[in-house]
Amino acid sequence: MSEIDNYLKQVRKGMRFVSGSNKTSFCGELGAQFEHRGSLPQENPVALGKAMRQVYGIGMFYRIILIVTAFPLGVLSTPMIGSWFPSVPVNLFLLLSLIWVFLAAYYGGRWSGLFTGLSAAVPRIIALILFTIGLDFINQFFDSFEVSEGDIGLVLITSLLLPIVGFFAGGRIRRPD
Q1: If you placed Cys at 70, which of 120, 130, 138, 175 could pair as Cys (CB 3.0 to 4.6 Å)?
Q2: Which residue positions in the chain have pLDDT lower than 50?
Q3: Distance, CA of 146 to CA of 129 (rounded, Å)
């Protein structure tokens, strides 16, 4: 392998999760520029790849995976699940949902963070609505459950903050010159 191929391999390593077509076109342009110039740049190739990941964003396949996997995390972070299954760590799943939204926002940008946050928040809001509407039916078969205003407010606030945090955390990285 030549020096150029080794350098481009390191650049590709830094461009992890970027779609294949964007990765191939950027590395092709970079390789042609190096061959024309006759020398390799002195900058870190992995850092260059990470900077290009911030420019291109991650591929659609990875965005879909992040969005789809946020939905079960949102379901498991619903506080009312703790009534029937006390061993489910609801707060841990809420923390995992938040970390997942941050991960999607960091790698995918604002819109990926927003949609991943929505995917985690929607099941929480749906479960809250179903439990508050069906509370009379549930209380016929089980001990008396109740959903207080504090629980409703807490679930709504945390559910609404997931997409908001995902959107605002997904800004592009700005480095001082």
Answers
A1: 120
A2: 174-177
A3: 13
One domain, residues 110 and 49: no
Residue whose tokens read 């911030």: 54
**31: domain range?**
3-56
What secondary structure letter does DSSP report for 38?
A: S
Q: Both tokens of residue 158?
A: 């945390």
Tokens standing for residue 137:
């039916």
Closest CA to 79 of 70, 90, 89: 90
The neighbour count for residue 57, using CB atoms within 10 Å, is: 21
Residue 140 and residue 152 in one domain = yes
C-alpha 177/C-alpha 122 separation (Å) is 41
Whether this prediction's pTM lies above 0.70 is answered by: yes
Give the pLDDT confidence score for residue 95 in this predicted structure: 95
